[in-house]
Amino acid sequence: MPEKDVERVRAEIEALGKSLHALKPKDRKKVAKPLKKLLLEYAAGDGDKEFDDLLFDAAVDKVFDFLADEIF
């Protein structure tokens, strides 16, 4: 994956984190399950021949930071 694509995806992940932060906790729980499913599908390589560890790690870090800070 070209570096510019990596940076674009990282920016989108950051924007998603900000969007999630703007939601009320009750609404965040509604979003958490589909987000978790998406990340697990990506990790398994569903629909994508190449798995980029760096992007997955960044996405997982953002999700766990969000969950730790906002829900618990």
What layout of secondary structure does this protein have?
Layout (H helix, E strand, L loop, with lengths): L2 H20 L2 H20 L8 H19 L1
Helix pairs in contact: 1-3, 2-3
Overall description:
By secondary structure, this protein is mostly helical. The chain has one domain. It has three helices and no strands. α1 runs parallel beside α3 and α2 packs antiparallel against α3. It is globular, with a radius of gyration of 13 Å. The model has no long low-confidence stretch (mean pLDDT 76).
Query: Nearest-angstrom radius of gyration?
Result: 13 Å
Distance between the termini: 35 Å
Question: Helical stretch count?
Answer: 3
Domains (count):
1
The overall strand count is 0
The helix content, as a percent range, equals over 70%
Mean pLDDT: 76
Low-pLDDT residue spans? none
* Structural class estimated from helices and strands: mainly alpha
Approximate strand percentage:
under 5%
Global outline: globular
Largest sheet: number of strands, sense, barrel closure: none
Order of helices and strands: HHH
Brief sketch in words of this structure:
The chain is mostly helical and 72 residues long.
